[in-house]
DNA sequence: TGATGAATTGCAACCGGGTTGCGGCAGCCC
DNA sequence: GGGCTGCCGCAACCCGGTTGCAATTCATCA
């Protein structure tokens, strides 16, 4: 419960999402986390809330562009709060880093996902750019 | 059975993979396909072969750098034959395109996955670059 | 305030990709 | 042949994600 729930209500309303207590909980968890969270991450944090409720909440959030999902190739989709007022566009999407040691996914907010030119006739909707490797703290530990 | 099985045996041997009839079948299927194949794609094509055998075969291939896997964010990992003699490096990895209409994954062989600079201390092992959208033939159909 | 209908939630069951244990079989070396 | 090793098929399992359904909550309006 890191954030003022009034603030969160405002955000939800601005995105056109009806406010409920569960939605506040989920949004709060997502905003308080420093990293993208998976469904089961959220399940762990919000252990009073049913998995399917979290799932459907995320569906609603995503439809209203309050969050976006990223696939870091671990087999579990991660969710992240959209920055700014309007919906995320391709060029907003930043790169992500997945650590093969500690299995955490990091946002590389300062690095935009590079956009390539597609062959004629292909239409781009979104980009996923994932780097896999070893993160800073793990590579330090190993040295 | 598009390829000469002698050729396939040679390839497997060169990668240090013991040759068996199933491994020839799997490698043949992968090489004959124009697109990356998932475990269940292979299951369908090779309907006489057990899923777990294909799975373990792919494990062996991957360990010996005969194939590499890509995650296109569909929830099923795809496999692709490594080009060339030695193992794939990060800079070899090309971009992939996932069509949200026909649910096919395309290799954009001519487009290398762009490589970004990581923050200090992060160590890169591999890159996944996936563009999602609508492919040429689907966008033609819709017009 | 109370009734009504729509939206939300919890529960349980399901689905499908991926994974594993195990027993049987094939190939190889002695 | 006997024994060893590795490969294969079967069945069962795991887990993230998803759905049907009944119960609850919420907003609205009489």
Give a quick summary of the entry:
The structure is a homodimer of 143-residue chains. By secondary structure, chain A is an alpha+beta fold. Chain A is 34% helix and 25% strand.
Any overview of this molecule?
The structure is a homodimer. Chain A is of the alpha+beta class. Chain A has one domain (about 5-140): Arc Repressor Mutant, subunit A (Orthogonal Bundle), CATH 1.10.10. Chain A has five helices and six strands; from the N terminus they run ααβααβββββα. Chain A has helices at about 5-15, 20-30, 40-45, 50-65, 135-140; strands spanning about 35-40, 65-70, 80, 95-100, 105-110, 125-135. In chain A, the strands form two sheets. Chain A has a three-stranded antiparallel sheet. A three-stranded mixed sheet of chain A has the order 5-4-6. In chain A, a hairpin with a 7-residue loop joins strand 2 (about 65-70) and strand 3 (about 80). In chain A, helix 1 crosses helix 2. In chain A, about 25% of the residues are buried. At the A-B interface, strand 5, strand 6 and helix 5 of A face strand 5, strand 6 and helix 5 of B. Chain A binds a DNA duplex (30 and 30 nucleotides) through helix 4.
């Amino acid at each position: 419960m890191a954030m003022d729930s009034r603030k969160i209500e405002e955000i939800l309303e601005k995105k056109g999402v009806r406010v409920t207590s569960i939605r506040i909980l989920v949004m709060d968890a997502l905003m308080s986390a420093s990293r993208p969270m998976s469904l089961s991450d959220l399940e762990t944090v919000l252990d009073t809330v049913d998995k399917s409720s979290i799932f459907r909440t995320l569906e609603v959030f995503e439809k209203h562009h309050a969050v976006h999902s990223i696939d870091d190739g671990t087999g579990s989709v991660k969710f992240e709060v959209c920055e700014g007022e309007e919906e995320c566009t391709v060029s907003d999407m930043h790169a992500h880093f997945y650590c093969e040691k500690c299995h955490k996914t990091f946002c590389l907010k300062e690095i935009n996902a590079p956009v390539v030119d597609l062959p004629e006739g292909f239409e781009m909707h979104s980009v996923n750019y994932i780097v896999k490797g070893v993160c800073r703290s793990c590579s330090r530990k190993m040295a």
